[in-house]
Write a structure and sequence with these properties.
Layout (H helix, E strand, L loop, with lengths): L29 H23 L9 H36 L8 H11 L1 H18 L5 H32 L5
Length: 177
């Protein structure tokens, strides 16, 4: 007769466990999925803008190089503004939470701000980029603003699609009970 192992869960020491916590994060995948959606959306818009930009031309063709530079300028401004908004949000979060935070806690803080609030940071970076392009010396400010709006729109829709993908995950963890 084969040996049998009988496993039975024992009752919890301090009452019933009320929450399900996934490994290595705070609760579910919602933060990661909607942030990833926002980044993918902005990356898709970046690719479309790059493909639509004129080719740099032959060496020495400064006019073609200039046209490509100004066509890609809004993309560069958008990503730099998003990076600046992320850095600013980390600093603000640092001072809002605890001034005596130890250096090893910066990783958790960056993870929280960078993942949970990334779509909001991207939106703020987009508005900063629109303002920057509006006051810049860009030869065609209207098309530059349109390119930044396209980046912001793709980022927003990517984050929204990521959030819609998250709803079944949240429901499976019993979040809506």
């Amino acid at each position: 007769m084969p040996n049998r192992v009988d496993l039975r869960p024992l009752p919890s020491e301090r009452g019933r466990r009320r929450a399900v916590v996934a490994a290595s994060c705070c609760c579910t995948c919602c933060c990661c999925v909607h942030s990833l959606g926002g980044i993918v959306g902005a990356a898709l818009a970046t690719g479309r803008i790059r493909r639509a930009a004129p080719l740099p031309g032959l060496p020495g063709d400064d006019e073609a190089r200039s046209k490509r530079h100004w066509a890609l300028y809004p993309v560069s401004v958008y990503w730099k503004a998003c990076g600046a908004a992320l850095a600013l949000s980390v600093v603000v979060y640092y001072f809002a939470m605890n001034e005596s935070m130890r250096p090893r806690e910066w990783g958790w803080m960056l993870q929280l701000v960078g993942i949970v609030f990334l779509p909001i940071v991207q939106l703020a970076g987009g508005f900063i980029a629109i303002l920057w392009v509006t006051v810049s010396s860009h030869p065609d400010r209207s098309s530059a603003r349109h390119a930044v709006w396209r980046l912001v729109g793709f980022s927003f829709w990517g984050a929204l699609i990521g959030l819609l993908i998250t709803l079944p995950i949240l429901a499976s963890f019993g979040f809506f009970r």
